Amino acid sequence: MKIEIDVEQFARDIKAGKSIGGADGALGLLIKQLTEAALAGEIDSHLAQDLTRNRKNGYNSKTMKSDHGSFELDVPRDRNGNFEPEIVKKNQTTMTSEIEKKMLSLYALGNSYTQISDHIEEIYGVGFSKAAISAVTDKIIPMIQEWKLRPLEEVYPFLFLDAIHYKVKEEGRYISKAFYTVLGVRVDGKKEILGLYLGENEGAKFWLSVITDLQNRGVKDILIASVDGLKGFPEAINSVFPNTEVQLCIVHQIRNSLKFIGSANQKQFAKELKAVYQSFTKEEAEMELDKLEEKWGKKYPIVFTSWRNKWDNLSVYFKYQEDIRRVIYTTNIIESVHRQFRTLTKTKGAFPNDDSLLKLLFMGIQNAQKKWTMPIRNWSLTVSQLSIHFDGRLDKALNL
């Protein structure tokens, strides 16, 4: 039997200014409704399987305590007295909503509200509206705010920043917005997402706000930052952390260069460009860049202007050994996170507001970080080399 959850009172409570969570929050009423609906589904299923002339026999009322306050729960009875509810046991007086937990679990896997409703109805015999599901998933928003404000480590050997774009509705129309993921590698070699930022107004001012946020949350030093070539970011990071070396992502630079190369020449140009970024030394790379420009410069001057203007930040990795080079020359380390984002959002063409997108991206971050149980490859050797290159800056963090 499908039971529709009435969320009108919940909506009225929220509109009247009542909080969603907490001891007296409006969500407590919704949990009561969901639980009683699930119990109704359970007893219907029980009676359908009972071959005797068993039937419903009213309710027992008991006080339940939850994270969202206490409420009176009406538990259905059967005439034979053999109905044993699963979602709330006979002697159980405290609970966290199993339906709510299941709902959030399904949401974290990228299921749509319709899919979640179908799954819950199949499991519990309960059907409810998109508004009810949205109210429960909105519990993620305070978690996001708490996560955004959490203290960070004092020192990060590596910092990476990259963007992913989505269509989000604003003032009645859908526009493309960039969401920037900031990933740090801690002194123990493990990855951590430090923040997620909406880049509505790109440029030095925006980047400065990102770096200042990291500093305000406790970051005192960053050794090397790898970014995707965004204008103004190297200057912004060095205005707050003047000793941080900024490496522009080589992969992004290659992709941007090929956009300006004629399709007939792209394959050959890309092959010859390898001699530049795969050189053993900065000096060798500069010689190869000169040779490449001599051959292609007149035809594609804008490409070489870009490489020359950005060369100081594109060539940082040449001073380091292979283990460090492999980590910093590209922002691909973030791509695993963005792949998780795309998995969660692949069925969504666009989003009605920023929060609806942020909820999903936050769940993607939690999914990604569950897998980060080991340091990055050859970390012991890498951190030893860093301690030499950046004399004294890792001593406190490494307890030296």
Give the tags.
400 residues, alpha/beta, five-stranded mixed β-sheet, two-stranded antiparallel sheet, 47% helix, elongated, disordered N terminus
Could you explain how this protein is built, in words?
This protein is of the alpha/beta class. Helix content is 47%, strand content 17%. The strands form 2 sheets. The protein has a 5-stranded mixed sheet, sandwiched between helices. A two-stranded antiparallel ribbon has the order 1-2. Strand 3 and strand 4 form a beta hairpin. The protein is elongated.
List the helices and strands and how they pair.
Blueprint: H1 8-15, H2 27-49, E1 56-66, E2 69-78, H3 98-108, H4 113-124, H5 130-137, H6 140-149, E3 155-170, E4 173-185, E5 191-198, H7 204-216, E6 221-227, H8 233-240, E7 245-248, H9 250-258, H10 266-277, H11 282-296, H12 301-314, H13 322-328, H14 335-345, H15 354-370, H16 379-389
Parallel strand pairs: 3-6, 6-7
Antiparallel strand pairs: 1-2, 3-4, 4-5
State Rg: 28 Å
Question: Structural class of the secondary elements?
Answer: alpha/beta
Low-confidence stretches: 1-5
Termini separation: 66 Å
Strand order of the largest sheet: 5-4-3-6-7
Instruction: Give the averaged pLDDT, no decimals.
Output: 85
What string gives the helices and strands in order? HHEEHHHHEEEHEHEHHHHHHHH
